[in-house]
Specification:
Chain lengths: ~650, ~80
């Protein structure tokens, strides 16, 4: 493809948590998700924007610490950078940790692509007493340096101007050379690379990356395809190792580190004494070995409380008119196909509005708040000890917490985990976390009829069960976990705009993705009922549903449809039993209610969860997940039934 | 030379060496943890849990599992010098 007949690609790249997505959003609108947790953008986001009459294809890549990937999310960033040569790189830097961030900048300069540097979070840097001479930095780096505060939308226009200018000139920063002995070795190896060799970016960059390469596979492949080159590589590596008494990749990393620190010192003055951040004191409390847990528990209780207090009254307000309307319909249309279709459709729409949204919105909002402040990483630190008991570590906490909202993004976010083992175990456990759809069912059935304490108890039980299952999985899956290495970003004052943006973004994806499935499923069930097919399904499932679980035979079909989306089960149970929500208890008993909720909560993950497991982790894990959930649902429901019976 | 696990909290330490596998070493390097960096162990570390480490050279905070911390060798910086 020639450059002329496509839009220029502009890539945003930066270390995790540098405000890259916020900056990207400021230009692209409400597209990428942002948060204060390392590694939240796990997929890249494309957006076509029209800036000053020019259409640009801007791409937000997952945060990456370096161009040597160590987790799947970082690999996404690199594949994009290496395979599709961008026309411009915008390197976003958290100015408050300039020294470390420059290491990635130096690596990007090695690529030799046109680039500009956006010094973001300048307000935070100033608070830390840092005075950055950005003009000097620009001279040293040889690339335009702009100042931005993405969360306040400051500096965006200037950044776009400089970006367009650099894009037009296609001017790449000159290479910054390392100390002579290391540089000589890089050049020495670069000379050995044959002309026809598939280069990434340029010869120097390819040479550096080959010296740094870790994968055994790569080394073995090279020996197969070009033995002399492999020998030259080994020689250069061992020379470097001998000279510096460290592995070659560490020698190169140290070069960048020292260069970055030198540039940092030359361009920045740090005023001592102003460094005490008021947020530091807050941090002392929330990370405290005793108080920290207390606060963690309080936050989750508060979570539960707000959702219950905000969601439940709204739901009650909405349910009555809707069910009245349904009765009105049934008296006017009779039991015709028309009625079943319209009724199914309405139930689906109502399910979205009256049941899901009141719980989903407050949950999304609170979660975005926790992420934006930077609490998630801290929760990971505090929970690490407990996670070790189920064979994982603190980094899995963030996907788990996301799972309370929706299991689908939670499974995607396991990409932040470096080891495949951790990813598999975390992904198998996520479907056991009550997502907002299941929370709806728990609240609407357990909390509404039996009281909030029962619902809370259900949650505690659910989390304990998660622990037991995690423990069991690690008994069978004996691969050691590499252990926790998690950056703790500085606490940030939350930005309401950021939080609202993120809430809106997730809500929109729910409305456009899940709601149609909900409505379609509901209509489908209406048709099945009209054709009396539900009787057949109920009869087939009867031994399990009525015999095993002791539930009314009629709910059999709803369990099957819980597979489409979990909250469907609730609506469909009411539909199948032919009662209004308020009258439910006249038909089924307390015990049946609990058994039903238990079964629905743990039974097969919903369709979208299975699909994402299949796509992200693989077919085997998806199938194991289905089997595991079904097994657990049946076993636990039977036990609960027995316990409640006595 | 002592392991980071045995080092006293809130005292400047110098990183001498990383033991352990390449994966862990590379991860630490990427996060800005290098040999010769000055680091401090945070006193807020949890009993039996992970430790919180501040890298004063790179100005970052990182939570490390005990297994990882055990593999980082440090020396106490003599402040009188």
């Amino acid at each position: 493809m020639t450059k002329k007949n496509r839009y220029p690609d502009i890539v945003f790249i930066g270390q995790p948590n540098c405000g890259k997505s916020t900056l990207f959003n400021a230009i692209a609108g409400f597209k990428a998700q942002t948060s204060n947790f390392p590694g939240t953008t796990v997929q890249h986001t494309h957006s076509k924007v029209n800036v000053a009459g020019q259409v640009l294809n801007i791409i937000d890549l997952p945060g990456t610490y370096s161009l040597n990937p160590s987790d799947p999310a970082e690999k996404v960033a690199l594949t994009h950078l290496f395979l599709e040569k961008p026309d411009l790189i915008i390197n976003v830097i958290d100015a408050s940790i300039l020294g470390r961030s420059l290491e990635l900048t130096l690596e990007l300069i090695e690529l030799g692509y046109p680039m500009i540097v956006a010094l973001n979070m300048m307000d935070l840097a100033e608070k830390k007493g840092m005075v950055i001479d950005h003009q000097k930095l620009e001279r040293i780096l040889g690339a335009p340096v702009v100042l931005t505060i993405a969360s306040h939308g400051r500096g965006i226009k200037n950044m776009i101007d400089r970006a367009l200018h650099t894009l037009e000139n296609q001017s790449a920063p000159p290479q910054i050379l390392w100390s002579k002995d290391v540089e000589d070795k890089v050049v020495e190896f670069a000379r050995e690379i044959p002309e026809e060799f598939p280069l990434v970016a340029n010869k120097r960059f390819t040479s550096i990356k080959m010296i740094e390469a870790s994968q055994l596979l790569f080394n073995r492949m090279l020996r197969e395809i070009n033995l002399p080159l492999k020998k030259a590589l080994d020689r250069v590596r061992s020379d470097l190792e001998e000279m510096h008494n460290a592995p070659a990749y560490e020698v190169i990393a140290a070069e960048r580190h020292h260069l970055a620190l030198k540039i940092f010192e030359e361009s920045t003055q740090v005023k001592r004494g102003v460094r005490i951040d008021p947020l530091k004191k807050v941090d002392d409390i929330i990370m405290h070995p005793v108080l920290g847990y207390f606060i963690l528990i309080l936050i989750f209780l508060g979570f539960f409380f707000v959702i219950f207090k905000v969601g439940s009254p709204i739901e009650e307000l909405l349910l009555d008119p809707l069910s009245n309307f349904r009765y009105y319909l049934s008296t006017h249309l009779g039991l015709s196909l028309y009625f079943y279709l319209l009724d199914g459709f309405l139930q689906g729409v109502a399910g979205g509005i009256a049941i899901v949204l009141p719980y989903f919105i407050p949950l999304l909002f609170l979660m975005s708040l926790l992420e934006d402040v930077g609490y998630l990483a801290r929760a990971g630190f505090l929970m690490d000890t407990f996670m070790h008991r189920i064979g994982l570590h603190g980094k899995s906490v963030s996907p788990f917490i996301l799972g309370f909202g929706c299991n689908v993004p939670a499974i995607v976010s396991t990409r932040i985990l470096e080891s495949r083992r951790d990813r598999i175990i975390t992904s198998l456990l996520i479907p056991f976390i009550p997502c907002s759809a299941r929370t709806t069912v728990i609240l609407a059935l357990v909390a509404f009829y039996l009281g909030p304490i029962w619902a809370l108890g259900f949650y505690v039980f659910n989390i304990l069960l998660l622990g037991v299952i995690g423990r069991l999985i690690t008994l069978f899956y004996k691969v050691p976990s590499p252990g926790l290495i998690l950056e703790i970003p500085s606490l940030k004052v939350p930005s309401l705009i950021n939080i609202l943006r993120k809430t809106y973004f997730q809500l929109r994806s729910f409305v456009s993705f899940a709601w149609p499935i909900l409505i379609a499923g509901s209509v489908f069930l209406g048709i099945i009922q009209f054709l009396n097919l539900d009787r057949i399904i109920n009869l087939v499932l009867s031994p399990l549903v009525a015999g095993g679980l002791g539930l009314p035979q009629e709910v059999g079909v709803t369990l099957v449809f819980g597979f489409l989306r979990k909250e469907l089960s609730l609506i469909m149970m009411l539909q199948a039993l032919g009662v209004r929500y308020q009258d439910l208890m006249t038909i089924i008993s307390k015990e049946q209610l609990i058994v039903f909720t238990v079964f629905i909560s743990f039974f097969v993950p919903c369709l979208s969860t299975v699909a994402i497991l299949w796509k992200e982790i693989g077919k085997r894990v998806a199938l194991i997940s289905v089997a595991l959930n079904t097994g657990v649902a049946v076993t636990v429901s039977l036990i609960v039934r027995l316990v409640l019976h006595f | 030379m002592i392991s980071l696990m045995d080092a006293p909290p809130d005292t400047p330490l110098r990183v001498i060496a990383f033991h352990g596998g390449h994966g862990v070493r590379r991860r630490l390097l990427a996060l800005g943890f290098h040999k010769d960096d000055v680091i401090e162990l945070d006193s807020r570390s949890i009993l039996g849990g992970p430790v919180l480490v501040r890298d004063l050279t790179s100005d970052t905070s990182v939570a490390l599992g005990r297994g990882v911390a055990q593999k980082i060798m440090v020396e106490i910086i003599d402040q009188k010098k």
